[in-house]
User: What shape does this take?
Amino acid sequence: MKKLITTILITIFLINTSFSQIFDGIQISGDFNSTLEKFKSKGYIAEDTSVYGAILNFKNMEVYLFKTPKTNKVYKAVVYLSEKNNWADLKSEFIEYTTLFNNKYGGKTQESEYFKSPYYDGSGDEINAIKNENCKYWSYWASVKGANYYIGISRYSKIKIVYENNANLLLNYQEEPDLF
Assistant: This one.
């Protein structure tokens, strides 16, 4: 009976960690080379690959795939959407994606929405605040079905979305302890 319960718990853990992060229909958790090929088959262009992962471009977005150094498992994907040149469009896109993630993953674990003085929402100088890193707009969902998710406004005036696979992130820490 104890063995059966252990088997069931391991199966539930594997299901939750293996199938939770999907971006553009592709799992962010498997073998790096096969994941890279899946992105390429959808039209993504690999601009650069290295021992750390790959940079892909597709339409008006960039995708950074990160892999574990020894087992070559994808542990993170960082997506940058297209640059916005005005605050209203950027804030609207941020709200759109955080609402989408709230509906999909539940309430945020943490969030921040503020400007450092002398900047403020409505000042007309929000884009400069962003580029000078005086604006902190981000939302974070921790440990949702074996994954972490982040949405923020980057200093490049782009929405940044991060998908992390917790099991493979831990594997990365184990494989490269000197980096952390």
Residues 49 and 55 are 6 Å apart (CA to CA). The mean pLDDT is 86. The longest strand covers residues 61-67.
